[in-house]
Amino acid sequence: MKIDAGMQAAINEMKKGLAEGGIPIGSALVRDGQVVAAGHNKRVQDGDPITHAEIDCLRNAGRPGAGGFRDATLYSTLMPCYLCSGAAVQFGIKKVVVGESRNFPGAPEFMRSHGIEVIDLDLPECVEIMGRFVREQSALWNEDIGV
After folding, report:
1. Gyration radius of the chain's alpha carbons
2. For the whole prediction, is pTM greater than 0.90?
3. How many angstroms separate the CA atoms of 4 and 19, rounded?
4. For residue 65, pLDDT beyond 80
């Protein structure tokens, strides 16, 4: 499977977060085939429970202007949680592409119920990196997902 620029940017952010000692989840926002913003989970690095990858990416994108991000696609290496799915709904994103949902099922039906097209690529690299993190850092992972 060929990985497009949006997913590659999200994977790069996932690896950056892991290298920083954080939770390996990355995100990117694409408009007209161009990556306009990217971010990664910084909950550990910033001590901020809200800085999930998708939130960091949207912050980095800046103000969307009239119409929100309706013309953009949000990429994430892991299926978005309800917080990040809610942000996608709030800002009018119509398409979310994810690397995987095996390690965390997230909220795809919530997004779909709000008219968002959700595509799960089930990428082995994303499954492996997140799965290893969940196994090796289970206390940190459980803290992040509210277990």
Report:
1. 14
2. yes
3. 23
4. no
